[in-house]
């Protein structure tokens, strides 16, 4: 496997990047992240030019990093400005600085050559919108990121792996529609369930206690950005002719699926809602429930990774209708990695 | 190394296979085992055809297994009978079912092509005989199974590794006779000790407190079935002219030596005796003593495996008379794996 | 990487070799060490000729080792003198015996062909001199030994990694002089600091509470012997014209840098002083402080080893003046390993 390079990846939540030195590897590239006194997020290659000591194991001196081994000192743009035992700093002494964009409370890094186009970064506006309340987290996954893409593009697994949380029998039973927008580079998968059971995740958070209409509209932006627009409403409640849908509940679930190494992944997840905005109990419930669901996936995918690692590559699979979205995602990923 | 295929292997004790889903790997092939409502033991390949999720991490629905990831549902013969999101089940959807034979309280599985001949399975009738009482267990061994074959074919190691349990100086001192029955595919190793010390394993279980005659008659049925017919009697007590030997004590020790992977092994062991049949204290003593002896071997062989893993293959060995049985066993194994 | 063979290596402190069987691997060669009744240190290959069982997991019978698996018995010169089940011992039955020299309380082993010249062993006479008191230890390092050579040849890292113990800003600031004696096969690195801060390691042990002159004179004897002649004196105190330097404090720090495997190292260290000879508190302080310093290096180098293991070989480095000694050491090591 090769990584999809020349791409934007979520590397951290904005609040993770601060005074400390945060080590995080993306696509096999070790980075050190911190925030300057002026508030700018910085990402440098996490290896001193001298003897490759990790800069994340070092110390800050103002906006600079002083290597913890021999004191090579770096500016936020990666330039080395001091070395021990001599006043002359070699001209070639610099570590690569990575292009960073902060948007919607996410820190994006450009992994590739040259500079990326920030306009190409997909948006998640509800993460900073006052009309939404968000809970979120990040779990380490000991599996290749493609397994998580597969997992999230086919939600029929909710019925089996997440029963009692978000899964009900109707999820697996209801057919999906899949649409690949090659131009925009997005895979859409939709499932519209009418008059179905309301799983605990939504009944306890919304207060609905009868049957519901439940929409799942997935947008997958390769290589690693995933949005699930979830609409829940008492059965029969429809959006108004003017587009007003305020009688329904909207939950914007999202994932950043970020390859760390070839077989490990950063699994960022969030749940934004447009109801019970100030209800701390609902926030705690949704946080804990969704984290449980994420960890159920983590456990299952870690097992699958072990299966794949123990078998020769190119094992056979059998795909059916539910896999249409996942297969479209794989084709897009293949194109990106082949470039 | 390759495994000996087209062979019967012990995969479990009968009582291990029940309502649950038991994962067990034999010769690198992952299996899931369970027992149908009608009492029949079933072994299927432990990988869903869809995305290779382990069926052993799944759930039963009556006699069927429902995959824990996306709900693919299998009959005991491996046929997939239901998939999510659609009513049509692809015709090719099936997992391999393995041929199973239960005999003498052991569950045997055929690893290979086509169907095996159940008549070729070696017997251990005392395991279910009312004239014997048996204690048994299974220990995981982090070593290639050939090391356990070597170990068991040469019991002179009892003197050094199992002193205080079954080893006495006379075991290593007494020469052996070895006979290879190529036609039947069995290696026989015998050691007849006359007027020797009685080790605690036998003195405490039989009550003999003087010198003994001690016979060790080994039958090794490649690749993985091992019987040790052990006869202990006060010195001078001989079988009668009519074959009656009821003044002696008989202990039928057995091992199933089952390769899990190239470097790990299932080490099944049992001790059946024709005396003190209802004496729970003797049972507990023999169980604990033999398990200790097995674990002494496990510790030593795990160390040897690490030695072998840390060295280039084809290291030199020096073999002597005591190794005649082990070398014969290796030759038979080589023939079986070369097929 | 290959090891430098046909070399002397420190394998143990004299007091480590006694009645027990000590397992220690040098340059990938597993050894078992013990001391005969007559007091002679013995090193044999730690593998029985029969089935490669580690002799270090065995037992002694007087000056002999009896293999813990099948009882093959060896004389201190490696000759096998008894085997089980037969009186004839095969003529070829012997394990390699390694040439051992004990000098200055260190046990040296010759790794290579034939016999080594004991006169080539570098000396550390203060280890057994009544004019010095020594504290010492050995720490396992999960890193290739070259990283420790690099580390010790460039003491500017004291300022960053060992601040509060032996590091002060002046160490990194003071230039070094390096001299390579190709004929003797020694690298010399010297740093003379005048009128500098006295770090706690020296102030608490010597009782000096003002500014000091501090000399660091390194001798590196490839592949793995390192001496640091450290002289501390109140600023301005110089050796007399007759060479008398009794108003200064002398600390003879030493390391034996001994490759265990390609990526692990035995890190022997000692600190000998010519003052406060009978002061147990100073001994305890120097032992604990130096062990802390060694462990700071161990932690840093273990991290570096992980960095190197995770990256393709031949990564770029940037060397400056402080690295002159380390680069000279590398060149000498390359010559030794190329032979």
UniProtKB/TrEMBL annotation, chains A, B, C:
It is an enzyme of class 1 (oxidoreductase). SUPFAM superfamilies: Bet v1-like, ISP domain. Residues 8-109 form the Rieske domain. GO terms for molecular function: vanillate monooxygenase activity. Coiled coil: none annotated. Pfam families: Rieske (PF00355), VanA_C (PF19112). Transmembrane segments: none annotated. Its EC number is 1.14.13.82. Gene3D superfamilies: Naphthalene 1,2-dioxygenase Alpha Subunit, Chain A, domain 1, Rieske [2Fe-2S] iron-sulphur domain. This is Vanillate O-demethylase monooxygenase subunit.
